[in-house]
């Protein structure tokens, strides 16, 4: 069978059997995941495992987040069709492509120029015109395109850079995987009336992004 067909079948199985039967309840997210070929954003040697429910290492410091954790993070973010989203450490652009199905505008932020080239190629191939990839310092965010209704980070952090708080719009949400010692959880930060609240969501694991260790941090 051609690769396209096998990829499509694996994608349908991922959504129907891994996600919708578990914690995913949002049909918009299910449709977004069905519309983006996950296998196109990994090296050819890894396409056969692209839909397994585990992180896929794209480089020493970038991952394609496991489908269940990614879907639940999207669900917690409550992304509206009018939202502007910042996708930090977007790597080869899979998360950016999925977010583009949900939001009005998506800015993918990445430092790895080789990954950026892949991301731009894949976004163009999918004819996604409401997303752009920006090369820049992950810890600085992307102030010039903000403020953002939602910020997501592809990877775990020990604590957050100070720049992110000022880039959240009123009502904005930041959803991350936060590592504290042996504990690792998805956490939602929400900006309401200038005050940022924090709520723990569910257990989730991901590698800590370089530069996001505690020594480089700021507590919201």
TrEMBL record:
Gene Ontology MF, one: protein-L-isoaspartate (D-aspartate) O-methyltransferase activity
Alphabetized Pfam families for the sequence: PCMT
GO cellular component terms listed in the entry, alphabetical order: cytoplasm
Family: Belongs to the methyltransferase superfamily. L-isoaspartyl/D-aspartyl protein methyltransferase family.
Full protein name: Protein-L-isoaspartate(D-aspartate) O-methyltransferase
């Amino acid at each position: 069978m051609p690769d396209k067909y096998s990829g499509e079948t694996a994608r349908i199985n991922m959504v129907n059997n891994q996600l919708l039967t578990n914690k995913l309840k949002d049909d918009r997210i299910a449709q977004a995941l069905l519309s983006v070929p996950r296998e196109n954003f990994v090296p050819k040697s890894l396409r056969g495992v692209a839909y397994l429910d585990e992180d896929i290492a794209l480089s020493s410091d970038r991952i394609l987040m496991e489908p269940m954790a990614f879907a639940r993070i999207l669900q917690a973010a409550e992304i509206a069709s009018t939202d502007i989203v910042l996708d930090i450490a977007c790597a080869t652009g899979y998360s950016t492509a999925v977010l583009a199905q949900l939001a009005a505008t998506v800015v993918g932020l990445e430092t790895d120029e080789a990954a950026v080239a892949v991301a731009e190629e894949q976004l163009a191939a999918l004819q996604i015109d409401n997303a752009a990839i920006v090369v820049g310092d992950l810890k600085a965010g992307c102030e010039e395109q903000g403020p953002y209704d939602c910020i997501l980070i592809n990877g775990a952090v020990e604590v957050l850079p100070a720049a992110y708080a000022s880039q959240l719009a009123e009502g904005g949400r930041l959803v991350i995987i936060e590592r504290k010692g042996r504990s690792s959880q998805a956490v939602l930060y929400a900006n309401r009336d200038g005050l940022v609240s924090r709520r723990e969501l569910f257990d989730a694991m991901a590698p800590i992004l370089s530069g996001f260790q505690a020594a480089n941090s700021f507590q919201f």
